[in-house]
Automatic annotation (TrEMBL):
Residue stretches making up the FLYWCH-type domain: 8-64
Protein name per its UniProtKB record: FLYWCH-type domain-containing protein
GO MF terms held by the record: zinc ion binding
Organism (species): Schizaphis graminum (Green bug aphid)
Key words, A-Z: Metal-binding, Zinc, Zinc-finger
Recorded superkingdom: Eukaryota
InterPro entries: Znf_FLYWCH
């Protein structure tokens, strides 16, 4: 099962799986990690192994629309840019943004997206 592991705006691990975002919920007694959907009223959950390398189980159905690929790319670029800005405080924001856009794969960003990131 393919998934992308990212970090949220608050620095918490976030998983993008089947066009949905999941956040850390708790560590279970079995040692696995439980994650839930980031939408407040959605009860969908996934269970991953402790190092978060494989999805063990998927529970529940989503009660909302999927997160499209474009929004996921914006989320990843935004968080990477914020992390780089705090690590390299001497670099110009435009340099950090240019570097992140060059490093990103298959970006379909337009100028409006870049202004929002």
């Amino acid at each position: 099962m393919d998934f992308i592991k990212t970090v949220t705006n608050k620095g918490v691990v976030c998983i993008l799986f089947k066009e949905q975002k999941y956040r850390f919920l708790r560590e279970m007694a079995s040692g696995n990690v439980s994650l839930r959907c980031t939408k407040k009223k959605c009860s969908a959950r996934i269970e991953m192994d402790k190092p978060m390398t494989a999805i063990v189980r998927v529970n529940g159905e989503h009660l909302h629309d999927i997160v499209n690929d474009h929004d996921a790319q914006c989320h990843i670029l935004r968080n990477n840019r914020k992390r780089k800005a705090t690590e390299n405080i001497t670099d110009r924001p435009s340099k950090i943004m240019r570097h992140e856009l060059c490093a990103a794969e298959n970006t379909a960003m337009v100028s409006d997206d870049i202004e929002n990131i």
